[in-house]
Specification:
flat; alpha+beta; single chain; four-stranded antiparallel β-sheet; about 120 residues; two-stranded antiparallel ribbon; Alpha-Beta Plaits
């Protein structure tokens, strides 16, 4: 069955708004969202090939060899298997990243080669 990279995205301004919230409000979002995320994982366990993870700040190296901080909306990933990209995307229709947390979206991309799992 085909494998798909699911990339969690979050706009910087949405993350900034979340971090600007009082700690108690952030904790309330976590208290609601983390169990939802665990439940989502359980419901889709058979489709999850690699749990990936959440990621931090970006460092980029460019063609000319420059290494410097960079920004993007990428905040995490996982790998799923499904018959089609649409079927893979449907797995995420009720994901808390875009329902409870301030996530912007989840991009689904097919692997053209690999990955070796």
């Amino acid at each position: 069955m085909p494998h798909f990279l699911a990339v969690y995205t979050m706009k910087r301004e949405d993350l900034a708004k979340f971090r600007a919230m009082p700690k108690a409000e952030q904790d309330a979002v976590d208290a609601k969202g983390l169990p939802e995320w665990e439940e989502w994982d359980k419901r889709h366990a058979t489709a999850i090939v690699n749990h990936g993870g959440m990621v931090g700040k970006t460092t980029r190296i460019t063609r000319d060899g420059t290494i410097a901080p960079a920004t993007n909306d990428f905040c995490g990933y996982l790998i799923v298997e499904a018959e089609t990209a649409e079927a893979a995307a449907a797995l995420f229709s009720d994901h808390p990243h875009i329902g409870t947390f301030p996530g912007d979206g989840i991009d689904i991309m097919p692997f053209l080669v690999g990955p070796a799992l």
